[in-house]
Specification:
mainly alpha, Ammonium transporter fold, two-stranded antiparallel ribbon, 20 helices, about 65% helix, RhesusRHD, transmembrane, Ammonium_transpt, transport
Amino acid sequence: MELPSNLLPDEASPEWMNKGDNAWQLTAATLVGLQSIPGLVILYGSMVKKKWAINSAFMAFYAFAMVLVCWVGWGFRMSFGDKLVFFLGKPAVALDEKFLLGRAFLGYFPTATMVFFQSVFAAITLVLIAGALLGRMNFRAWILFVPLWFTFSYTIAAFSIWCPEGWLAKLGVIDLAGGFVIHLSAGVAGFTAAFWVGPRAQKDRDSFPPNNIILMLAGAGLLWMGWSGFNGGATFAASTVSALAVLNTHVCTATSLLTWLLLDSFFFGKPSVLGAIQGMITGLVCITPAAGVVQCWAAILMGIISGSVPWYTMMVLHKKVKLLKLVDDPMAIFHTHAIAGGLGGILTGFFAVPKLCRLFYMVPDWEKYLGLAYGLQNGRTSAGFKQMGIQLAAMLFVIVLNIVTTSIICWFIGLIVPLRLSDEELEIGDDTVHGEQAFALWHDGERFVTSKHNKVYDTDDFSHVGSESIGEVQMV
């Protein structure tokens, strides 16, 4: 029987390529990209004080662009290429059509698809780090920080954990979509960088209200729905495992959000939109390393844990631990990503199902992937504890890596440009840093101000409006 003409292989659709997998992988990559732009751009820009809306959104916007250029220039092959040392690949470009049109190292699609898919994961990691530095980091310092941290930290974690030649990958670490590589890295690096950059102006630390809560929810919604591509695409196939990964992602996230909301309501008397968003994020982060290799009931348990433990560290422990109070982390990246990502990695080592690991990894030695719960159940207790040990080793490696590399990078950048904005820039915000205002008509809720850098209109534009109305617009 002959295949339909649209399924026949040709030069553009070689025999090894699965068109369905390729289409899903490109779609998943686009969904992850949308999490950053516009998702986190909107979330950051609306979650901060009005005077920092442009700066916060722009930090994310710039990081996304810079990482993509670095990725094809050297980052992809440092993360997934030929081994240079046990924790890093050889730097090389990913620009030649012969390389890009060949089969990817995993899956049934071209390397070009893999390069794009992995690039948006790398990009969102830097965007997440930005959340810990909003409202005071010198933008010129951020311009330098992004390529340096990407090159000397992200590529090391990615190669070690995700590349088949990486040392932790060979040991058998389970990190389906980046609980360690992305979220733990971003949380620790962001917290470390925030320590070196220093805090926001005291006035901003005392009062930092979001400028648009409805828009903030829109950004959060893009982040949540985009996670279908984040975890569903990490299986590298349009398969049963990808379907389970997507379902587990949303079940865990909803459970985490509701858990956080209940805790806020019980202890503080009112449900909080900000709290619900934090609970959403911790659920998304916690399920990331486990999404396709745990049962759906385990995803619910992980949601309860991810909605309660980071809640406790943020709402209770943060006020008691001196270091947590000292470091200014305006988006709580440490709690929502470092704590939740670490929890996810540990819980993955406990709940990972052997059969699901076999379906995901499809390797001859799949039996080494075994959650402790199933090791205890099946009489393979030592194998279960070994898996937990590997998960903890990966967690420790990522923490130490990011503390050391981030500190060195911040020290180096500080020799070139100041890490922190000047007092005048901290006082005024966007208009001084970028010469632009996000809200031209209602600047700081006081009066209309025409920026000297970004003039919005002349009074002649209001020739059709009565003088009394113009006076009301300009009135303090």
